[in-house]
Amino acid sequence: MVRVGVTRARFVSRLAVIAAIGAGSVGAYAQTPQAPAQLAPMLVHPEKWPTARSPIALDPAIETKITDILKQMTLEEKVGQTLQPEIRWVKPDDIRDYHIGSVENGGGSFPKGDKHATLQNWVDMIQSYWEASIDPRVNHVRIPLMWAVDAVHGHNNVFGATIFPHNIGLGAAHDPALITRIGAATAAEVRSTGMDWAFAPTIAVARDDRWGRTYESYSENPRIVADYAGAVVKGLEGNGATFLDKDHVSATAKHFLGDGSTDYGRDQGNSLVSEKELSTVDAAGYVTAIDAGVQTVMASYSSWHGIKMHANKALMTDVLKTRMGFDGLIIGDWNAHSQIPGCTLSDCSIAFNAGVDVFNVPTDWKALYHNMIHEVQSGEITMARLDDAVRRVLRVKFRAGIMTEAAPKDRPNTFKPIGTLEHRAVAREAVQKSLVLLKNNGSLLPIKPGARILVAGEGADNVAMQTGGWTLSWQGNDNGPGEFPGATSLYHGIEAEAKGAGGTVTLSADGSFTTKPDVAIVVFGETPYAEYMGDQTDVALHHGNNESLALLKRLKAQGVPVVSVLLSGRPVYVNPQINLSDAFVAAFLPGSEGAGVADVLLAGRDGKPQHDFRGKLSFSWPKRPDQTPLNVSDANYDPQFAYGFGLIYAQHAKTARLPEVKTSVQYGDKDVYFTKGIFWNGYGLSLGAPGTTRINYTGKPVTAGTAITAAPSPRDPKALHLAWSGKGEGGIDIAAAAPSDISREANGSMLVSLTLTVNGPPPSSVQLVVGDTALPIAKLLHAGANHIEVGLPCFVGQDFEKAHTVIGLKTDGKLDLDLIDARLVENKAGTTCPAN
């Protein structure tokens, strides 16, 4: 048999790492498999960690059945149960031929690529995979597959589903019983599509709000996270007699462990906290999740003191499985095993031996399948370890009824309506309870009945901004107004409430008006992002900061009282906006039910509040952009608004003017480098030609030698004109002062995106550059408007952790173009690499 993708040298070095990590409770070591002598221990003491007790005890009858099944299964069938591909890279025939145990649809993945797929479309697709998994022609025993989905704030991948507030808002509600009801409603909608496994809840304790996943955390306080973790698991899985019945789905506590405490708040980063803090803060939610009966745990991308969690046997096996008694399965995160030194996408015995039971391997699953078979045959993976992983998979399937349940299309809850009035009522209640009132000078709120109301700002009539990332797509930033049937924007919610109280409402995104309003409600904030795409270098409001300030200044100058509503996935420094507002509300990411905001902001016909503010900050609010980490337990704790702060209508408090900090860098969405005529996030452009010193473009015409010129475009004021003379090679580089780490973007197969207007026939040779790797793109260019997208993985051999040039162009021929936009964007189906 030919072994796929592993050299003998790497095999030997990997065995050294396996031996080190296999030391168990003393087994966290610096990850340098190529040089084992440099390994240094970071001790784990399982006996010092908290214990947990699942209410779901081992069932002797089930364990006997599993033992009998394991005896009948072939090696190939066992390995197949430990792999989870993604639907874009696996077909029903593959499920049958490779005995695959579970499948997921990732963010932005739909039946036949249709974002608006119906329940019938979803069920038909899942049914075809399920039927393949039980084909008796190729299986010695009938083992149906499980279907997993990232249902993190409702069944958010499915068109028409109820979208609940993201966790950061729910944390401000301080209501575990509400969280249980949200979990139950989510489970019901997941069941409607024939699925049975939710990759939720996220129970990270976010300690540095620069992290792009802060909004997936309930609080900086581990007590709230612990209270909520058990509550949401009971909602998703059921409890007691309802445990994993027809109305519920398997839950996933994620991401084990330390993802909320990484250095600089960096997604997939390195946690340097002590073992005591890791066990009492980061792990707090895992104890209550196990106590509630959670059946699956997802391992984290992050590291602890330099060891990737997917390789940490001491924590996954000795602590989670042994000390805490977790007897379900550990699922890997999306291709995360490939980040372990000594591993690749298609080969990673290290992670499996450390305790990962199911590989989340969207793309390279076939090669991983063959490599695992070889590794069991060679002894690199023992049969005992493989049997343990498969036993855990089968145990979860038996407990969830997967082994005996009817086909997806025939289950009692399949095809039940989603986005129901009942579920939307729960989501609306969650919005009401999660709003935090930070300022209410002059008791402007609640807005009196009969008022003339102007609703303004980018977020006013923008459900995509309300729902944020992980909504219909991974990033959630490609959603338009037609993506949310049944949802209510803030504007439409305000309009309905105001008209019911005899008032009038005008929508004007830019704040212009003909008749002066009695009050303006201005909605602004962050645009959608997910994971590392939301990482920041500080906690300032980046997107739209200048636009929101300008709008508030205009209204202030016109004497219009202003209520500001901030949509954000983290506490952000917005002191200038607060100072320009008479009232200020933190709405976080409220989801599809914008009417819940109007319920609290507007008085009823009797002039009394319909609902008071109940939200209290579950995260500390910064008074400076650089004030992070900021947590209630810190020494010298000095927030702008403290943890637990939140005004109510009975408090007639006056907020004094807040201190303001000036910033000089133009900030925008992460991985946006040039748009609207501006270089963002500290990036700029330089020109170069052989024999010349690189020249920075600063907004005025510049030339590098005789080869290339950059200047403002005479045709488009928000574009950059670039002209190559054909007199030797010239190039442009978009870069920051220090090399950029875009390794996470590369792991996510993100795309280099350029929007150009080519003002003449393209030359014979043009190269697109990332780092020091170039690809030919002349064949992609044509005269006129051009939009080019090339996947980062196409730049083979590039060290994406240290890419000085994030996007570059070079040619030695004539070329004349306008650069309109340059950024990285989410991967799309069907993209290919340019041919040489």
Structure notes:
- The structure is a single chain.
- Helix content is 26%, strand content 17%.
- Strand 18 (562-567), helix 19 and strand 19 (583-588) form a beta-alpha-beta unit.
- The longest helix has 17 residues, at 176-192.
- Helix 17 packs across helix 20.
- It has 836 residues and is of the alpha/beta class.
- Strands 20, 21, 24, 25, 26, 28, 31 and 33 form an eight-stranded antiparallel beta sheet that branches. Strands 14-19-18-17-15-16 form a six-stranded mixed beta sheet, with helices on both faces.
- The model is unreliable at 1-39 (pLDDT under 50).
Short structural description:
The chain is an alpha/beta fold.
Question: What topology does this entry show?
Answer:
Blueprint: H1 8-21, E1 28-29, E2 41-42, H2 60-72, H3 75-81, E3 83-84, H4 92-98, E4 102-105, H5 119-133, E5 146-149, H6 167-173, H7 176-192, E6 197-198, H8 222-237, E7 252-256, E8 270-271, H9 275-282, H10 284-291, E9 296-299, E10 303-304, E11 307-308, H11 313-323, E12 329-331, H12 349-354, E13 359-360, H13 365-378, H14 383-399, H15 421-434, E14 436-440, E15 452-456, H16 463-467, H17 490-500, E16 504-507, E17 519-525, H18 545-557, E18 562-567, H19 575-579, E19 583-588, H20 595-601, E20 672-675, E21 678-679, E22 684-688, E23 695-696, E24 702-704, E25 708-712, E26 720-725, E27 730-735, H21 743-747, E28 751-758, E29 767-770, E30 773-776, E31 784-791, E32 807-811, E33 814-825
Parallel strand pairs: 3-13, 4-5, 5-6, 7-9, 8-10, 9-12, 15-16, 15-17, 17-18, 18-19
Antiparallel strand pairs: 1-2, 10-11, 14-19, 20-21, 20-33, 22-23, 22-27, 24-25, 25-26, 26-33, 27-32, 28-31, 28-33, 29-30, 29-32
Helix pairs in contact: 2-14, 3-13, 4-5, 6-15, 7-8, 7-15, 8-10, 15-20, 17-20
